[in-house]
Structures are given as structure tokens and as C-alpha cells.
Amino acid sequence: MNYVWLILGMALVTYVIRAAVFVLGERLPFPPVVRTALSFVPVTVLTAIIVPMTVSPHGDGAEITWRNPQLVAALVAVIVCVFTKRPLVTIAVSLAVFFLWQFVVLG
């Protein structure tokens, strides 16, 4: 039952924060420094989610080896993205590499 209260509490906090931004919207002008800082939030959050999953997929510590399919696919994704700059191609190629690496190379 404690988990239910925890989840409901987190949902309430998230809702209040988001609702405050929508309600206050134009009435609360942000200084340019804050706007610049807020523009980096999506990239920062995405990086904070992806890097641990890529480097330590099992949570036991860093697995920087060729036997880590997440790491191999992430490196391929970076290379494909740099050369093509097309998100859909990057996703498709990196997923193909991930599954091929996991099922064919690692068997």
C-alpha cells in the first residue's frame, strides 16, 4: 500500500508543477539565463536515462566490452546519426545492430 501512496504523491507533484507552468504561463516571465538553462533539460534527462542503460545494462557496474549489445548499438547509432542526421534511419540501424549483435554474435 505504501507504493500506491508513493506513486500517487509523485503524480500529484508532477501534475502541480506542470499545471503551474500552464496556469502562470505568460504571467511569469523567465530571465534569459533560466530560459537558456531550461533548453538543456531534455538533452540532460535523455542522457541521464540512456548512458546508465548503455554502459551498465545489468546494473552490476560498467560493461565496456564488445559483448555488451547496448553499447555496440549506441556507438553505431552515434556514427549513423553523425553521417545521416536522420533519426528514423539511426533508430532502425541501431536496433538492427542491437538484435543482430545479441542473437547472432553472442548467440
Automatic annotation (TrEMBL):
Tell me any Pfam family this protein matches: AzlD
Q: Would I find Cell membrane among this entry's keywords?
A: no
Membrane-spanning regions, if any?
6-25, 37-55, 67-83, 88-106
Residues making up the signal peptide according to the UniProt record: none
The protein's name: Branched-chain amino acid transport
Arranged from A to Z, the UniProt key words for this protein are:
Membrane, Transmembrane, Transmembrane helix
Q: Which organism is it from?
A: Caballeronia cordobensis (Burkholderia cordobensis)
